[in-house]
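From the methods appendix. Each design record in this collection lists the tokenized structure first, followed by the designed amino acid sequence. Records were kept in a plain field format so they could be parsed without special tools. The example shown here is representative of the layout used throughout.

RECORD:
FOLD TOKENS (102 positions):
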């Protein structure tokens, strides 16, 4: 199986294409089943490593201050949504400046 097909929900055999009568031959069905598979089972560890590596590569290609680069902001948002915080980031911080007193 080619590397490009390892991350899809429906394995391909033969010449990389299912038969024309297959219910998985339409690309929209394949994308939907792949998204559903990730929703139910989550990412594999190898997929997560690939995702983080791609994000790092994008980070070094982007310009501007480190904390304001789009990939750094996206990573910080993921960490905050997981219940943690990134050191040096203002996301997820609950200091006194964000509190309102009556």
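DESIGN:
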């Amino acid at each position: 199986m080619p590397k490009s097909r390892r991350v899809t929900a429906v394995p391909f055999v033969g010449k990389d294409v299912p038969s024309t009568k297959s219910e998985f031959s339409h690309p929209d069905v394949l994308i939907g089943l792949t998204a559903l598979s990730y929703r139910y089972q989550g990412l594999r560890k190898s997929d997560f490593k690939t995702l983080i590596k791609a994000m790092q590569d994008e980070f070094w290609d982007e310009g501007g201050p480190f904390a304001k680069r789009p990939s750094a902001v996206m990573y910080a948002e993921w960490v905050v949504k997981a219940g943690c915080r990134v050191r040096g980031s203002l996301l997820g911080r609950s200091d006194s400046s964000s509190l309102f007193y009556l």
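APPENDIX NOTE: The radius of gyration is 20 Å.
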